[in-house]
Input
Amino acid sequence: MKEKISLLLIFNLLLLFGIFTQAIIKKESIQKDGRLVFLPLLPKDPRSLFQGDYMVLNYDWSLLEGEENAGAPNRGCLVFQIQADVFVPIRLQSSFGNLKASEFCLQYYRSDYDLKIGAESYFFQEGDAELYMEAKYAGIRFLEGKTDGDKLLVGLYDKNKHRLGSSD
Output
């Protein structure tokens, strides 16, 4: 009986390790091969008393406020196009397919108050708040041709699309 429990425990640990490894490999692939797109930011206070310095990323979703998106599901695909490397939201839809040639997709979900893409805060070194106050864009990388909607926040950028802070 103890052998079965030990084997089950080892199997579960290996499975968990495999899942984490796969997630890390996927994010590394996005970091290395993903296309960089800039999401316009709306101003926010970059300070948290309990967490240190960070910026809550408040994206401009005003183009999605039309009636056609009012009945969109709480989770799904945020369809966007890219114009001059800038993210332009088009519509919300439930499926990750049915995209035109110039359209791409990111996963989204709706909270009670806002639309979220899973990259809503950016932490930075304490004392750098003034530097990040200049942020006008969030840099997101995604893999073109993939329809799972996964992405990676890679940094904050100024109005000229120059990365703020250290460039890793």
Notes: The chain has a mean pLDDT of 82. The beta strands are 35-42, 54-56, 58-59, 75-83, 86-93, 104-110, 115-116, 121-123, 137-142, 152-157. The chain is about 20% helix and 30% strand.
